[in-house]
Specification:
234 residues; alpha/beta; 4-stranded parallel sheet; 9 helices; 17% strand; globular
């Protein structure tokens, strides 16, 4: 699917939802213009209250987990709307692999509830050229543009690129994930002293976010926040 076709289908979907009664993506019940009905929204899992201020993993005590204290990541904080578990995982997969672009505003809305908008700009996690051509859209960028509009924060489209073809991270160990994305990104923006939020759909080990954050800090950014729809909890 081409970018032009994806954009056309997105416009058609928005027009259809404007003309027809909206239905919940999970239960199929009618909603007031949202993709989730109130009961299904209330049933979505919540992030643990006690979690690491840096990587968002659950904590028994303290503010920062032992792993982040031992080896501080290049990003400074992570905000996640949900843990990556059912039915959030089904929603993400319907969006990412099923091409249901009407879920992007929903994810952006949920992210807007949990982030601190004290950033200067938003950067979407980039896709490689071949993956973008295959999928037809960048799932992170679609969320980022809706989120930027909601928060009134500029989205730096094209500031970062993925220049290396990498194998899918799923199924790889942490060490393999780190090697897989090493030198995969470039940042062509000048960001001296900027506070940047990197938006992505799912964070698992943080290896991809960490590599892009490293590159963006080399471009001058002072602080990097990861804003993700869902966080895998170990």
């Amino acid at each position: 699917m081409s970018n032009r076709m994806a954009a056309f289908l997105n416009r058609c979907s928005r027009a259809a939802h404007a003309l027809l009664p909206s239905s919940c993506v999970l239960c199929g019940g009618r909603t007031a213009g949202s993709r989730l009905c109130a009961p299904c929204r209330g049933d979505l899992p919540a992030m643990p209250a006690a979690r690491c201020a840096r990587c968002a993993l659950p904590l028994a005590s303290g503010r920062v987990c032992a792993e982040c204290l031992a080896r501080a990541p290049s990003y400074d904080a992570v905000a996640a709307a949900f843990p990556y578990q059912f039915p959030v995982d089904a929603l993400v997969q319907a969006y990412k692999y099923g091409g249901d672009l009407t879920l992007a505003p929903l994810f952006a809305c949920e992210l807007a509830r949990c982030v601190r908008p004290d950033v200067d700009a938003i950067v979407a996690m980039p896709l490689s050229a071949s993956r973008l051509a295959e999928r037809g859209f960048n799932q992170a960028h679609e969320i980022a543009r809706h989120l930027g509009r909601t928060l009134r924060v500029p989205v730096l489209a094209g500031a970062c690129r993925k220049v290396a073809e990498t194998t899918p991270q799923a199924g790889l160990t942490l060490a393999q994930r780190v090697r897989n994305v090493r030198r995969a990104f470039v940042c062509e923006a000048d960001l001296p002293g900027q506070r940047i939020a990197i938006v992505d759909d799912v964070m698992t080990t943080g290896a991809t976010l960490n590599e892009l954050a490293r590159v963006v800090k080399r471009a001058g950014a002072a602080r990097i926040s990861g804003w993700v729809v869902a966080r895998t909890l170990r």
